[in-house]
Amino acid sequence: MCYTQNRFNALLSACVLSLIATAGWSQSLTWLGTLPGGRYSEPYGVSANAVVVGWVFTVVEQSRAFRWTASGGMQDLGTLGGDESAAWGVSADGAVVVGVAENAARQGRAFRWENGVMQALGTLPGGVGSAAYGVSADGAVVVGVAYNAARQGRAFRWQNGVMQNLGTLGGSWSWAHAVSADGAVVVGVAENAVGSYRAFRWTAASGRMQDLDTLGGSFSYAYGVSADGSVVVGWAENAAGQRRAFRWTAASGRMDDLGTLGGDWSVAYGVSADGAVVVGGTLNTPRQPRAFRWTASRGMEDLNTTYASLLTNGSALHYARAISPDGRYIVGGGYNVATGRYEAFLLDTRCTLDGDVNGDGIVDDADLLIVLFNFGNRCP
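User: That's the sequence. What structure does it adopt?
Assistant: Structure tokens below.
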């Protein structure tokens, strides 16, 4: 009995020491670098499996669309026969990329890239150019802007080879920036009848644009939408004429001001699938650009502070451009002191404790018991 108790205590002590020694967080920050000959990189989208897309500005002052993966690094997606391209959106599985590329006639055309093939999506009837900014989760629906003969932009929704004009809010132009997971809700910005530009939400069910209003000023701009289309984020003017990041919900029918980190402006660029996590850029009190993450429980937090342990002294995360559907991955731009240049970054925010055997987010006696009851076992 005594021997058994002593052996148990010894095992327990060993397990405690082992879990303490191995407990740690798997969060990581990866600077993505550039393509060969690149001066700096800008990210604009991230998939559920951490595929990042954006563009690199080269030493010959041209932009090139890229797709980055952890296993393959940064891949140049090419063009449509011209010199330049830029990627703006990516499907949930990272297989489909959308953006804009130059054709042989040096005209900008919206593209959809998949399996190494870049497809031009054309323009609206009589149009002179187009660019794609967002794509549905399955890669089937693409949204963006197409220019008519008068070079006025029109928000479009493309599916099965057909480009649909989404109209305006009474003015002469509109742009679509993001689309819901199923492709049924589109958000962006459009001019109204008095010449102000307003964030809009378009639904396939209604076939029309809804003006999302402002925070008391004249202008607003929508950049992101949740998976079901019920939450929209972007920026809007307040009564003092200052830009503020907003989060609009269909349930409330109104915008909420997400504030700043002490400065006088902020902008929200991306939102998680469930609409709970918002990312963007703002200024702090010394008027330094700072990437932020906002949640209802924690408010607006400076990613440079929250993840300070991942940053080399002198490096800084200036803005967060997009977030993966589950909220785990955040991409943005900042200064990498190691290379001395401005680069895209990928932040993995997942907090996994190595000693959390049962995966409940806590290292406690339940984990110890699992280890004890399986002590000495080995895999076949």
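Residues 1-25+360-380 form one domain.
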